Structures are given as structure tokens and as C-alpha cells.
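User: Could you go from structure to sequence for me? I need the amino acid at each position, not a summary. C-alpha cells:
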């Protein structure tokens, strides 16, 4: 009876705490003529080069709406890098209608708004905003939506992002990888194998994808192929617990108990954080030790 295999997600987004928002000002105006002021521009450039984003964001708060709008890209960069997510959201909400008034779709700015909302804990709004960017033509929107879905453990969101990415950007690996990941975690191993293979054809450097493919192969007892998949994964990441675990299971399936036990010991030495994974490794080690002891006694 095969064990429930470990599923490793390939993507994750680290969410940082939002800084206190800067005091809001009344309005901004996008597209007015710059009212000169070379020393002031040198000040902006100097703060940019020095990476003093908080000071640069403060400097923009003292500018006129027209001057801020003329330098909107720098202002947005400063707010983002200073992690002033509340202020960034407010600026973008005011700027987007003006930016798009002439018919241009401001995809980078829409994606930045989704990023600000993610950091503010507005996960649903961030996800929907990123999906909208994808639907408007940028695969970055679907990618962001998928990463966000992974970070909040929402397989329903991940499925939406994966389906959209596969439909509109078939040659990108991420959509197929996510689709296979969802099916794998649902225990639909036979269905998961094809999208996992498509993802690996497009990006063979995905160690977690090779691990999940090995899990599918173990289920249908293609143990030699499962070992090859784990070898690919371990060549990319020798510290991957799942690769040692799945290779150990495949070796047990081929009655190579000593080799399987060695892989289980390597998985155990990597100290997986999941207690369920640790328990499964320990149980497999006990079974292997018991079987090897019986073989030695028979001799």
C-alpha cells in the first residue's frame, strides 16, 4: 500500500509587514508640464541612487500635485520600496483613471495596486486585481495570482490562475506545474502526470515538479522511472526531503531495501518540519530494518 506522498509547492510569496502610511494629501494630477527646478530634480536623483526611499517618499509629499504627477513613476517606486502600502494604494486609485482616460490600459500600475493590496492583507482584492491584469494581456498578472494563491493555500484560486495561464500562455511552465500540483494534492495521480510532464518540458529545472512526477510514477508502480525523476530533482536540489523519500519508496518497490533505507535516512537527516512526514519516514525505516533483519537471519 503506497503512502500519501508529500507535495511541495514550487512558489511562495513572502508578505512583509506594512509600514505606517504617510499622511495623505488632497489630489494628484497626471501629465502636467514640469515646472522646472533642476536642483530639486537633482535631489530626487540623489535619493534614488542612494536608495533612501523613505526620504524620497517624504520629499514627494511636499511637491505640488502637478509635479508629483509628472514624476509619477519615481513616486510609485519610492512608495513601494519604502513599503508605504496604504499611501501607494491611495495614489494608484487616484492616478489610474487619469492614466487610462486616453484608452491606454495601465497594466504595470494595476499590478502594483494588486501588490499594495496584498501587503495590506486584502488578499481577495489583490488576487482579483492580478487576474484582471492577466485577462487584459499580461501573463505577469496570472503569475502573481498563482503565487498569491500558493502563499495563502487556496487551491481554488490556484486552479483559476493555472487554467487561465494554460489557456492563454500555453508555452509557460508555471500553469502546467500548478495544474499538476493541484491534481497531485487531490490524490488524482493519474491525471496529474500529464500536466506535470508538460511543465517539466517547458522548465526542466523545477525540482519540485520532478518530485511530484516521481510520486505519480510510484503510484502506478513505474519504480525505475520514479527513481530517474528523483535523480533529476536531487541534481537540482540535494536537500529536497521529498526526493529522497520518493526515491526510497521506489527502491522498496524494486526490493532494493538497503538502498531505500539509505534514502529514508537521508530524508530523516534533513529534519522535515512536518510531523506527518517525519512519522512516515520513521515507519518506513522500521519496516526496512525489520525486513533486512529477517533476510540476515535467513542466511
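Assistant: Here is the amino acid at each position, in order:
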Amino acid at each position: 500500500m503506497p503512502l500519501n506522498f508529500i507535495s511541495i509547492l514550487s512558489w511562495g510569496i513572502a508578505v512583509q509587514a506594512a509600514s505606517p502610511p504617510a499622511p495623505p494629501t488632497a489630489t494628484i494630477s497626471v501629465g502636467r508640464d514640469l515646472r522646472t527646478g533642476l536642483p530639486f530634480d537633482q535631489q530626487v536623483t540623489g535619493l534614488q541612487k542612494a536608495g533612501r526611499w523613505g526620504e524620497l517618499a517624504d520629499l514627494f509629499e511636499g511637491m505640488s500635485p502637478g509635479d508629483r504627477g509628472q514624476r509619477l513613476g519615481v513616486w510609485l517606486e519610492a512608495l513601494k520600496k519604502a513599503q508605504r502600502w496604504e499611501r501607494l494604494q491611495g495614489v494608484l486609485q487616484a492616478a489610474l483613471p487619469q492614466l487610462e482616460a486616453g484608452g491606454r490600459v495601465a497594466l504595470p500600475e494595476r499590478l502594483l495596486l494588486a501588490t499594495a493590496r496584498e501587503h495590506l492583507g486584502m488578499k481577495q482584492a489583490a488576487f482579483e486585481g492580478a487576474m484582471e491584469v492577466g485577462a487584459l494581456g499580461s501573463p505577469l498578472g496570472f503569475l502573481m495570482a498563482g503565487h498569491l494563491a500558493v502563499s495563502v493555500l487556496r487551491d481554488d484560486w490556484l486552479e483559476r490562475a493555472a487554467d487561465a495561464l494554460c489557456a492563454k500562455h500555453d508555452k509557460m511552465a508555471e500553469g502546467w506545474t500548478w495544474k499538476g500540483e493541484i491534481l497531485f494534492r487531490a490524490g488524482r495521480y493519474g491525471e496529474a502526470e500529464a500536466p506535470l510532464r508538460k511543465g517539466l518540458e517547458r522548465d526542466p529545472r523545477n525540482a519540485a515538479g520532478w518530485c511530484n512526477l516521481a510520486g505519480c510514477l510510484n503510484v502506478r508502480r513505474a519504480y525505475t522511472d520514479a527513481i530517474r525523476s528523483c535523480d533529476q530533482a536531487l541534481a537540482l536540489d540535494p536537500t529536497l526531503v521529498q526526493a529522497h523519500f520518493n526515491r526510497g519508496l521506489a527502491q522498496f518497490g524494486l526490493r532494493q531495501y538497503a538502498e531505500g533505507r539509505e534514502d529514508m535516512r537521508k530524508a530523516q537527516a534533513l529534519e522535515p518540519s512536518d510531523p506527518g512526514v517525519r512519522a512516515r519516514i520513521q515507519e518506513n525505516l522500521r519496516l526496512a530494518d525489520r525486513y533486512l533483519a529477517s533476510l540476515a537471519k535467513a542466511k
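One structural detail worth keeping in mind: The CA atoms of residues 261 and 289 lie 8 Å apart.
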